[in-house]
Amino acid sequence: MIYQFYQRRIFPHLLNQVMQTASLMDKRRELLVPIEGEVLEIGFGTGLNIPFYGNVDSLYALEPNPDIYHLAIERVQHAPFYVKHVQSSAEKLPFADASLDHIVSTWTLCSIPNLDLALAEIYRVLKPTGTFHLIEHVKHPDSVKLQSLQTLLTPIQKRIGDGCHLNRNIEHHLLQAQFKFVEKEYFDADGIPAVAQKMLFARAQKQ
Ligand SMILES: C[S@@+](CC[C@H](N)C(=O)[O-])C[C@H]1O[C@@H](n2cnc3c(N)ncnc32)[C@H](O)[C@@H]1O
């Protein structure tokens, strides 16, 4: 009961604050400003990407958790473009095959229970010329010490962070799902603890 209170009433506010760390907001801008037209964002969270979609006409905001989406409503109401909330999971996307030009994920792939199924769905609904734009925290690519710490802490992180895995090799999962990178960069985000600091910034297309 206390855990349920934490998850429903406290965690969404913590998420809303942490995800506004300045270094993350800067990267959101870099990822999203070039996107035009219609977009599907998976794991829309509290709507922090809205200000950076400068050239977007309409946005499908896929967010399964109503307590988190509740904190997005005010941002959605002030959005200068059409936003449709889709209460669904990335593992079962309610979109036709090859129907979308742009799909966005910012710090969502860490939390999806069945990541490979979600990536197969993203692949299915993306047009052959479409782009999957993402920023995610990842398993550290080099440091064995940090990798071990990430694996050690992931069971706790999943409990306090609504299913968040610290140790996912997102690049590997994307390649397994038959994506190819058209842009890829690893960086350390300022203001984030070392165990979750290594980020993948990427744009991927269907092979
Ligand atoms: C760390 S938050 C990131 C929120 C937001 N993308 C951002 O950049 O601030 C992870 C988000 O993924 C969502 N999520 C969890 N499981 C999901 C699933 N199966 N499908 C889609 N989204 C999911 C959570 O509800 C949460 O909003």
Automatic annotation (TrEMBL):
**What Gene3D superfamilies does the entry give?**
Vaccinia Virus protein VP39
Give start and end of each Methyltransferase type domain. 40-132
What Pfam families does this protein map onto?
Answer: Methyltransf_11 (PF08241)
Q: Extract the GO molecular function terms from the UniProt entry.
A: S-adenosylmethionine-dependent methyltransferase activity
* Protein name (Swiss-Prot/TrEMBL): Methyltransferase type 11 domain-containing protein
Source organism per UniProt: Acinetobacter tjernbergiae DSM 14971 = CIP 107465
